[in-house]
Specification:
The complex is a heterodimer of chains A (113) and B (117). Chain A is an all-beta fold. Chain A is built from no helices and eleven strands. The termini of chain A are far apart. By secondary structure, chain B is mainly beta. Classes of the chains: A mainly beta (113), B mainly beta (117). At the A-B interface, strand 4, strand 5 and strand 10 of A face strand 4 and strand 5 of B.
Chain lengths: 113, 117
């Protein structure tokens, strides 16, 4: 199937710093790009998503940008806190159905006090 | 709202036996559910899309005769791992789409840890 590449695989930042996670996708028909946060032993939870007709979306300390031409999108977390520590997955819809998703391999974010 | 449950949470079985995992949407009707497999410290790999009342759509490389999916009602999908082998040991997680949530947000179940001896 189509691939979603995610970088970095691990990221360590100090509390208060910003964290950026980048993803690229190959399916030009993808039109929905959610980001999920998965804490250890828990289920993935949606934290923010963006559709292909929007270039940027922000929700408090979290923002996502999308460059559809370059087929890449990024997650930005500002003023990081220890509770932001988790694995973050990006995903891209398979085709334009907006239903099934291809996930990136995940980024393990550690925020140190 | 939009709670998804899975049962069992953990199962250990002998090689050659079959294991059934249930995925339920507790407070909404889910016409579409998804089954994923997650290896330790790895991503979620989509196995199949389960639609109520019709055959599941399997991703490339996933054996439909080994991983039987039944979506018998709008709140229940089951995944049966037939003739399980140690290499089938993994974390299986389902998700469901709620028509009430915007952007077809997928709500995930808590997952089932399968260990095949």
């Amino acid at each position: 199937g189509e691939n979603v590449e995610q970088h970095p695989s691990t990221l360590s930042v100090q509390e208060g710093d910003s964290a950026v996670i980048k993803c690229t996708y190959s399916d030009s028909a993808s039109n929905y790009f959610p980001w999920y946060k998965q804490e250890l032993g828990k289920r993935p939870q949606l934290i923010i998503d963006i559709r292909s007709n929007v270039g940027e979306k922000k929700d408090q300390r979290i923002a996502v940008t999308l460059n559809k031409t370059a087929k890449h999108f990024s997650l930005h977390i500002t003023e990081t806190q220890p509770e932001d520590s988790a694995v973050y997955f990006c995903a891209a819809s398979i085709g334009d159905s907006g239903y099934a998703l291809n996930f990136g391999k995940g980024t393990s974010l550690l925020v140190t006090p | 709202g939009a709670v998804v449950s899975q049962h069992p949470s953990r199962v250990i079985c002998k090689s050659g036996t079959s294991v059934k995992i249930e995925c339920r949407s507790l407070d909404f009707q889910a016409t579409t559910m998804f089954w994923y497999r997650q290896f330790p410290k790895k991503s979620l790999m989509l196995m199949a899309t389960s639609n109520e009342g019709s055959k599941a759509t399997y991703e490339q490389g996933v054996e439909k005769d080994k991983f039987l999916i039944n979506h018998a009602s709008l709140t229940l999908s089951t995944l049966t791992v037939t003739s399980a082998h140690p290499e089938d040991s993994s974390f299986y997680i389902c998700s469901a789409i709620s028509g009430r949530a915007p952007n077809n947000e997928q709500f995930f179940g808590p997952g089932t840890r399968l260990t095949v001896l």
